[in-house]
Structure formats: structure tokens, C-alpha cells
Amino acid sequence: MRLLLAALGAASLATSVASASEAPLAFTEIGAETYTEQVGVIADLDDGTYVTVQFGVSNVGPGDGKGACRFVVIDKNGKITKGERLVERSEWRYDASKKTLQIGDCVASSDGALSMRVPLPEGTVDLRLTKTPQRKRALEAKVGDDFYELDTLVMWSDATVTLELGRKKTTLKGRGYADHSRSKILPSTLAKQWLRFRGVRGEDPRVLLVRFPKSGPPVGWHEGGDGTSQVTRAQMMNKGDRWRAMVKGDKGEWRVTTTKLLSRFAPIEERGAVLGGIIGGIVGNPVTYTFRGVLEERGSKKRIPGIIEITVTDE
Prior knowledge:
By secondary structure, this protein is mainly beta. It has a single domain (about 1-310), classed as AttH-like fold (Beta Barrel). It contains 3 helices and 20 strands. The strands form 2 sheets. Strands 1, 2, 3, 4, 5, 6, 7, 8, 9, 10, 11 and 12 form a 12-stranded antiparallel β-sheet that branches. Strands 13-14-15-16-17-18-19-20 form an 8-stranded antiparallel barrel. The longest helix is centred in the C-terminal third of the chain and has 11 residues, at about 275-285.
């Protein structure tokens, strides 16, 4: 089930709004065993705290249509607090009239702004992005009859997050990003690696997404104040837990370098030896590393700090 919270990414951005008529939080249930769908939000906060919240459904593993809500909070000192709730199909629903998605006790709303409330035993996260979410198709890929789709919901926006962790309640400000993906293609089939950079704070926000397929050239896009640049060439390398990517697009060139490892997320490993072995036999062992890092732009010499996610789909 945690597969849906692991290795989803994006490639070349088509700026059409063909999917805009679809509700930002509505899920499309598909009977395929490999079907997964999720809404993911990240917030990079002014005090150095990083927060991610995910709502999703999946048929992967035992049972169909299982739902999940999850949060990860990494404070400015590197302390990680995370929680997850898994539910049966009968315990989640989308209410079109209220524009709300409910998974167990977790509730997300797209009515005017994008908000998510995740109350779990480990703590409660209330996250709000002020921009009205709109689905814009960012990727469509097909392998045989199977597909992968990703829509951006909010490219960047002001964010407010209220954290109740233990006996402490804190409200923090910052910036955030949100997207909505669905797939029938297994992560290890769609790509060998993904690179995601979200530098959404400051006056010059940037988002960069690159898919490295098993064969063929990397594909992806860079979004900034000057619009969208399609990736024409990219390579990524690492030395231990330090990574660097060189990316060239039709409107610029960028170097992305990690500076600090925040977390490692390996959903199949966390399922335990028996169930993890069953699911891993189907999907491999996707692992996502989250870092702080910087995007450097050739020519302008701008340095944009942000959050970097690197996913290896079968480590």
C-alpha cells in the first residue's frame, strides 16, 4: 500500500488544462492490480521546517481500494515525526458537493484553497495553501494499455501549517507545492530514477522535474518566472549521499546539488520481511531520498535554495 506514497514523479510538462474540469481531489477508481492514485503536498517553512502530506488509494498488495493518509514533519534541527493511517475501501470517500476527500479521520478540501488536516496518534498536521488548486496535465505516459498521469494542482503558493506534536502547538508560515498523480504502470517500469526540485520560497520560485527512463533520454521540465522549459538533456550522479544533476533545457541550463540529507523513505522495506517480500516481488524496492539543496542557473548565476527529492525505483 505504501507504494502509492513512494515513487511517483513527472516528466515533460504539457501546459494544457485538458484535465482542469476534473476536481482536484477526486479519485478515479480502476480495477487493475497495479492502480495507485495520490495527492501530495509539500511545504518549505520559514523557520527551516519541512512538511509533506499525502492522501492516496491503491490496489497494490492485499486487498483493493485501500486508502491512506500520511504526514512527515522534519523540524529545523532534523528531528523527524511521521504518521500514517491505512483504511479499507469503506472508510474513504470524495464528496463532490463539498469538494472534500476524507480518508479515515483525515480530510482534504479544495474549496477556494487547498487544505489538509491529518490527525494521527503521532500528532496532527493542518496544512493550507492559499492558491485555488487547478488540475493542469503535466505528464501522460503509456506502456501498452497501462498509463501514468500527473497533474499539477498548485505550482507554488503561500502556505500556513499548524503542528500539534506532543503537547506543543505551533503555527508556521512558508511556501508550498501540490500535485495529483495516478498510474497503472509500476514505478520500476516507468523510470529508473526521478529528480524533483521545489524551490518555492523567495521572489524567484522554481520547480524542476526529470524522469530518467530505463532506456532512452531523460525527459522533464523546468518552471520559473519565464515560463516552462522542456528538458533536452540531463545526467545525475552521486558520491555516497551527495548528489548532483546537470540539466539542459530549451530555455536554460541548471545544476542541482544536494547539501543536506533530510530523510530516506523505503516503503517496501518498512512493510516487513513477509509482506514486503510479496509486494517487492511485484514493484521492486523504490526508495526516495529527501534533501535540502540548491539549483544554480547558468548565465544568470542565480542560486535558488529548495527541497530535492531523488527516487531510485529499485534500489
